[in-house]
Design a protein that fits this description.
Number of strands of chain A: 19
Strand content of chain A: 15-25%
Number of helices of chain A: 16
Oligomer: homodimer
Structural class of chain A: alpha+beta
Protein name (chains A, B): FAD/FMN-containing dehydrogenase
Shape of chain A: globular
CATH topology of the largest domain in chain A: Uridine Diphospho-n-acetylenolpyruvylglucosamine Reductase, domain 3
InterPro entries (chains A, B): FAD-bd_oxidored_4_C, FAD-bd_PCMH, FAD-bd_PCMH-like_sf, FAD-bd_PCMH_sub1, FAD-bd_PCMH_sub2, FAD-linked_Oxase-like_C, FAD-oxidored/transferase_4, Oxid_FAD_bind_N
Family (chains A, B): Belongs to the FAD-binding oxidoreductase/transferase type 4 family.
Organism (chains A, B): Variovorax ginsengisoli
Keywords (chains A, B): FAD, Flavoprotein
Distance between the termini of chain A: 44 Å
C-alpha cells in the first residue's frame, strides 16, 4: 500500500486530504507569502493516531510537518518547495480541554485548542491564561508552544515557555513522551519540555500540554501618555516598576507615524491626546484588588513623572469604553499598516536599557540606505522588544528595482544594530524559513553546533520540519 | 607530564590541591554522609582556565566534577567511591559580579559568587534577586543553577530556572558556549540554557550567568495563623491568591511536631500563638507600595477566612522584630531537627490541590511500616512542595536493625504516594546520587531515554560527573 492508502486505513478517508482544493488552505501561509506541495494533510483525533501517523511516515521516509492554526509570520508551518513533499499533520481535531484544576492553577489541553478557548476555559474558573496576541482567535496552543509565542502579557507573565508546566509529545520515532506534569517544582533530571518549546516542530509533535494559570485580575487602570523621548519612556517604566511591582501588566510604545497610520486608515480609532506627539505609551495596571487603588497609583506615578518633566501630555481612561478604545489602537497596528503600504517588519529585542540607542542607530542605518525613509515603531518596551518597521507606500515600493534584495538589506541593517547592542533578530516571531540566513550569520558556531547535536539526537533521520529553525551545517571544504 | 603536573603548569601550584588535608573539605559533603577520592582539586580563576582544565582532563580521560559551595543534600557534588577519581573543579575563585544593569533588571555574575553576594549586589541597586534558601550564605550561584535551586521565594518568583537569562558554559569538549543573553525575549532556535540548568554538572561547567532582577519590595506584612487542617490552609491560600495576586510572597506551613521541636531545641524561638495547634502557616505579602495597604489586605483576608471558619487562631506581626521572629522559626527547622533526632527527610511535590490527600496517605503508608511514628511536616504549600519527615529520636534510631534499609523503605513509601498523585520524589533537592534508584523506578523509559540521548550528545565520553542524575541504562539481556 502507498503511504496515503495506509494513512486512510488508519484515520478514515475524511481525515486524509489530498485534493488540491482541500489542501490549499494548509499549504499556503495566511499572508500568501509561502506555499509548497504536501503529500497530504492528515487530521488525527488522538495522540495514538498522531503516533501511528508518525510511524508510517518514518517507515516511508516522508517528512512530517506539524501544523497548528497556520498563523506563523515566518513561514514555519507550510511546506517548502524543495525536498520530498511532507505529510502535514494538522492538530485542529484535537481541541479538548482535558481538565482545569483551579486550586492548582493549572489546565490540561490538547494541542489543537485555539488560544482564545484556553483563555475562556480558564476565565470560567476565575483564572487567567496570560498569553495574549493578535492571532489568539485562530492560533492553536500547540503552535504557541512550538513558537514560544510572546505578545502583550510578557512583561508581567513571561513568554509561553514560562507558562508551560508539561507536555505530551509524539517523538520522531513514533513513541509518545508523557510529560504532562502539573507541578511547580520538579528537580528530577533534565527539564525535557524545553527541547520542544520554541523548536517549531523540528523535534516532534506537541499533542497536549499542561499550562500555568494565574488569578484573574479583576481591576484595571490604563493611561495613554506622551513621553518626551524613548529615554523618558524608560525612566517612566522604571518609576512604574518601583511603585507597582507586578501589577504593571503592559507598557507598550508606538511612535507618531504608527499612530497616524492607525487613525488615518481606521477612522473609528482616535488619538486619545489632542496632539500627535512623537511618542505614545499605553500603560496598564491590573490586579485582583480594588480598582480605586490602581487608579490612585497610576495617577501618583504620572504626577511624579510630570514633576520630573518626562511627559508632554497624558490621559487616564475613566471608563471601560475608554480603556477598550486605547487597546484597540494598539491591536489595530497590523491591519492599518497593511492598508497603508509595505512595512518591512523586524522583531528585534535588546536589553531594555538599550532601546533608545537601538532606535537611534537603527534609524541612522536605514537612512544610510534610503535617506529619509519613514520608520514606524511598535515596541513592547518593557520587554526590550521593538518592532522597527521601515515603511514604504505602495507606490514607492513598486518603484524599487529589486524589492527582495532591498527588504533583506534593510532588515539586515536593523538586525546588525540589534546584534551590536547584544540583542536579537527574532524576539517573538521565531525563525521559520525567513530568518535562517540570520541564524547562520549571527549565531556562534558553538551555539549552532549544540542545536544541531540536539536535533541529531532526537530526529536522526531529519524528517521533522526539515530545513527550518537551524540552518544546515556548512559543507566541509573540498579537498 | 602527568595530568597533575600539567594542571600545575597551567594554574600554578597554589590552585592545584593534592595533599589529603587540603582536599578533605572538598571530597566530603557538608553533612558527612558521602566522601570519595579525587585526583586533585583545582581552583581556576577564569573561564579560559576552566576550559583549559577540561581539555587536559579529556586528554587524560579523567572525569570532571564541577563543585560550587558543596551544600548539596543529595551527594551530587563530591566524588563517588568507584570509577576513576575525578578532578574536582571548584569555582570559588571566580566570584566577580561582572555587571548590574538596573534599567534592564539584570545582573551578570561568575559562577563562584555566593548567593548572598548576588542578593546584596542587586539590593545595592534597589533590585531583588529572589532565590532565597537556607544555604544562601555559602552556596554558589553556579551550584544553584546546576541544581535549579528552589527555596522560599518560588511561590512568587519561580525557581532558579525561571530567573536565569543566560549562561556561559565550558562544554565537555573544552569549548566555551557564550550564551550570556540579557534579553526577555529571544526566539532564535532552541533555548540551550535549559540543557545545563538542573543538570547537576553532568553536561558541562557553568562559569557565569546573567540573571533576572526584580523591583526590591519595600513593604512587607506577615501573619502567623493556625488553619483547621491542610484543606483549610489550601482554601486560605486560594483566598490570598484571589485577593493579593502577585504580592503573596510566602505561604509556608509546618505542623505541630515541627513547631514543638523548634521551640524545644532552640529556646529563643517562641510559638507566636498561645497554643500548639496542629497546623501553622506563615503568610507574607511583599510589595513596592505602602506598608499600610498590605497590612489592610492581610487583615481583610484573614477576617474573611475567620468568617469561613478556616482558622483556629492567628496573629499579625506588628514590628520588624516580630516579622523576623516568625521567619526565624521557619529558618530554624533543619538546625532544630538535627538536634532532636533522625528525620528521614523527603522532598515531594504534588499538585497543590492534592497536598491534603498526600499528607493523609503518606502518613498511613509510613504508619503501616512503623505504627505511630511521629511525622514532621515542613511545606512550601503554595508550590505543592512538602518535606514530609518521618522522625526518630536518636535512641529509637539506634534500635533499628538495618537503618539503611529502613530509611529506604520509608522514603520509598512516601515517594510512592506522591507518584500516585502525579507528584515527584524530588521537588527542589535534585537527584545527585541519593535518588538514582528512584529515577530508575519512577521515570518512564521514554523520559530516561531522552535524557540519556541528551547526555550522549553533549558528553559522549561520559566524563562529566558520571553516574549522577540519570541512572545508567539497564544492560541488554544476555543471549
Amino acid at each position: 500500500m502507498t503511504l496515503i492508502e495506509q494513512l486512510t486505513v488508519l484515520l478514515g478517508a475524511g481525515a486524509v486530504l489530498t485534493a488540491e482544493d482541500d489542501v490549499a488552505g494548509f499549504t499556503e501561509d495566511w499572508r500568501g507569502r509561502y506555499r509548497g506541495p504536501a503529500a497530504c494533510v492528515v487530521m488525527p483525533s488522538s495522540t495514538a493516531q498522531v503516533a501511528a501517523v508518525v510511524r508510517l511516515c518514518v517507515e516511508h521516509g516522508v517528512p512530517v510537518l506539524p501544523q497548528g492554526g497556520n498563523t506563523s509570520l515566518c513561514g514555519g508551518a507550510v511546506p517548502g518547495t524543495d525536498g520530498v513533499a511532507p505529510v502535514i499533520v494538522n492538530l485542529a481535531r484535537m481541541r479538548r480541554v482535558r481538565t482545569v484544576d483551579a486550586a492548582n492553577n493549572s489546565i490540561e489541553v490538547e494541542a489543537g485548542c485555539v488560544l482564545a478557548a484556553v483563555q475562556e476555559a480558564a476565565a470560567a474558573q476565575g483564572r487567567l491564561y496570560p498569553i495574549s496576541l493578535g492571532a489568539e482567535g485562530s492560533c492553536q496552543i500547540g503552535g504557541t508552544i512550538a513558537t514560544n509565542a510572546g505578545g502583550t502579557g510578557v512583561l508581567r507573565y513571561g513568554n509561553t515557555r514560562d507558562n508551560v508546566l508539561g507536555l505530551e509529545v509524539v517523538l520522531p520515532d513514533g513513541t509518545v513522551w508523557d510529560g504532562l506534569y502539573t507541578l511547580r517544582k520538579n528537580n528530577t533530571g533534565l527539564d525535557l519540555k524545553h527541547l520542544f518549546i520554541g523548536a517549531e516542530g523540528t523535534m516532534g509533535i506537541v499533542t497536549a500540554a499542561t499550562l500555568k494559570l494565574h488569578p484573574l485580575p479583576t481591576s484595571h487602570a490604563i493611561a495613554w501618555v506622551a513621553p518626551r523621548s524613548p529615554a523618558a519612556a524608560l525612566q517612566l517604566l522604571g518609576l512604574f516598576q518601583s511603585a507597582c511591582g507586578a501589577s504593571l501588566s503592559a507598557f507598550e510604545m508606538i511612535d507618531a507615524n504608527q499612530l497616524r497610520i492607525v487613525t488615518e486608515q481606521l477612522p473609528s480609532r482616535r488619538n486619545p491626546l489632542s496632539a500627535l506627539h512623537p511618542w505614545h505609551v499605553l500603560i496598564e495596571l491590573s490586579d485582583t484588588g480594588a480598582e480605586d487603588a490602581l487608579q490612585t497609583i497610576l495617577e501618583q506615578v504620572l504626577t511624579q513623572a510630570a514633576e520630573q518633566d518626562l511627559l508632554l501630555d497624558g490621559v487616564l481612561a475613566t471608563s471601560g469604553a475608554q480603556r477598550a478604545a486605547m487597546w484597540e489602537i494598539r491591536h489595530s497596528v497590523s491591519e492599518a499598516n497593511k492598508k497603508a503600504g509595505v512595512g518591512l517588519t523586524t522583531d528585534s529585542a535588546v536589553p531594555v536599557s538599550s532601546v533608545p540607542a537601538f532606535i537611534d542607530r537603527a534609524t541612522a542605518a536605514v537612512h544610510a540606505i534610503v535617506p529619509g525613509l519613514p520608520i514606524v515603531i511598535v515596541a513592547h518596551l518593557g520587554d526590550g522588544n521593538v518592532h522597527f518597521i521601515p515603511f514604504f507606500t505602495y507606490a514607492e515600493w513598486e518603484a524599487v528595482a529589486d524589492p527582495e534584495a532591498m527588504a533583506q538589506r534593510i532588515r539586515h541593517s536593523v538586525n546588525d544594530v540589534a546584534h551590536s547592542l547584544h540583542g536579537t533578530f527574532s524576539a517573538e516571531h521565531g525563525v521559520g524559513r525567513t530568518l535562517l540566513n540570520e541564524m547562520a550569520h549571527y549565531k556562534s558556531p558553538v551555539e549552532l553546533g549544540l542545536m544541531r547535536r540536539m536535533k541529531q539526537a532526537i530526529d536522526p533521520q531529519n524528517l521533522f520540519n526539515p530545513g527550518r529553525l537551524v540552518p544546515d551545517a556548512p559543507s566541509a571544504p573540498a579537498h
